[in-house]
């Protein structure tokens, strides 16, 4: 387990994001200007990184480069790609973190490859059988000292079939993450089910409910339904990777459809256009507070090292914020907090 | 036979020219408030950039160099600046300050902020009295026009810039006719030689290093003075133990650490500077029972970190390309920041 370091080094997988390496380099450069205690280790094609870095404002004392000649593309199958490309940027970055050259990994590349690279190089925290991919979702309510308008949902795809034991571990991990990153002292944790009653849901959810109810130190509030996700009834929603992923994709689909409908309305009728124009400042404000870029990325929880998966479409600001979130998780010893939570 | 009144010092083999604000001293004059604070600071309140005083002291160790300071600070600050240099244990040979009151009284407002018309004649006039074989290393920063002026100076005395280009540059730079005449006069007195080895630009404003690429590999933008020390070790101006002393001062007084120093080293390697031999020399300097080196506790770790940073690069980047500097097209680099966007009228 990594102790509490004075200076934190974050390894950035520079290659493979939707906007290309220059955007990740820009994010790391921004981080080098804003956060003196964070150092960026850029892993990827050295000449490409150097060219991008030389032309942007950065602090060279806080950035180093590790050459990796290959990368995994977004459309590649993770297992096959990593087997074929052992020197891909995400694999090299994960290895460097495992070797102690950096404290955490940030990648905006292929999610599956990132998770698999971590599985190969990192160790699971004692008491955790499977890792969970968490994500934040904008909600009606705000939470924690940071007034985050997001709730955390996990797992959204790392572990498709989770047991009751896995769900319990996910709840502890999500609670620790919300406590540290959102500065929410007692985050409310719930299981996603098809009813709020304890006996509702498949056997693994019922069993997990029973075990979570008896866990001291965890603010478990019971079950929630799908409708509670956007309402923000609780701070951490726990489910398995299959259901979580379906929920996430559906929520994204609803969001996209609403946007398309708004665009349609804007084009279709002058009255609707006027209405939207009158609402524009409110919409902008809403966009600001629910801007996922400020949150940086989604954590992969359960490993002894931190991995923040930034969105594939991340721009420099989101990358820099992902680096800050990773550094915060390292500085507050997230791994230790999870381990202690599981031991209770 | 009587003895001479004084024994002439040895002619300098090397000349180190330094700017002060933002090159040697940490100075803020982005706002009027900063400007006032800087003007009324006492000597002991002024802070040198980490490693700068150690570097100057180590460069002076050989005893055959001259330290020439040309600063844009007003003459009225001489006493406090001299006191600061003395506090830092620095001895200088020349110390030129700007006559801002004189410029103001004579209505030469362009000269208040302009750098080309002030620094270029000052360093050319200084070179007139230098032995032709004395090589030079210049230190400036990215706040004003140091890279442009120093490079122009180097190419003028090397005979790489002709009179036509010089006239164009002086005109476009808004240089007053009397200052332009001083430039021409001093330039003509200097025998053609190519003495300028390096121009270090301290990246106070963190200007992207690629901004200085048009000046060629002689100009080395640096994030800190450890980087300058490494290049000067490779260039034969410093020894490895001297570089270690500079690094130790930066570690002990300015919060530098293994990561910042090894990142600084790798940053130069990535820009194609040939520092492998310098790294070997540093490793060798660490060997043996040297009490001073034992005091430098983090050094072995730093050298290990250097090796890792070197290995992390894969193949060694190619050295930067040597090219002729197109001063006319770079003239915007030489103008005071507020004037850059404006169309310049010819000086009257």
UniProtKB/TrEMBL annotation, chain A:
Signal peptide: none annotated. Pathway: Lipid metabolism; phospholipid metabolism. Its EC number is 2.3.1.274. It is found in: Cytoplasm. It catalyses: a fatty acyl-[ACP] + phosphate = an acyl phosphate + holo-[ACP]. It comes from the Bacteria. The keyword Lipid metabolism applies. One of its GO terms (biological process) is fatty acid biosynthetic process. Keywords: Acyltransferase, Cytoplasm, Lipid biosynthesis, Lipid metabolism, Phospholipid biosynthesis, Phospholipid metabolism, Transferase. GO terms for cellular component: cytoplasm. HAMAP family: PlsX (MF_00019). NCBIfam families: plsX. Catalyzes the reversible formation of acyl-phosphate (acyl-PO(4)) from acyl-[acyl-carrier-protein] (acyl-ACP). This enzyme utilizes acyl-ACP as fatty acyl donor, but not acyl-CoA. Belongs to the PlsX family. Homodimer. Probably interacts with PlsY. PANTHER family: FATTY ACID/PHOSPHOLIPID SYNTHESIS PROTEIN PLSX, PHOSPHATE ACYLTRANSFERASE. This is Phosphate acyltransferase. The lineage of its organism: Bacteria, Pseudomonadati, Myxococcota, Myxococcia, Myxococcales. The gene is plsX.
From TrEMBL, chain B:
Residues 19-161 form the Phosphatidate phosphatase APP1 catalytic domain. One of its GO terms (molecular function) is phosphatidate phosphatase activity. Pfam families: APP1_cat. PANTHER family: PHOSPHATIDATE PHOSPHATASE APP1 (PTHR28208). This is Phosphatidate phosphatase APP1 catalytic domain-containing protein. It comes from Corallococcus interemptor.
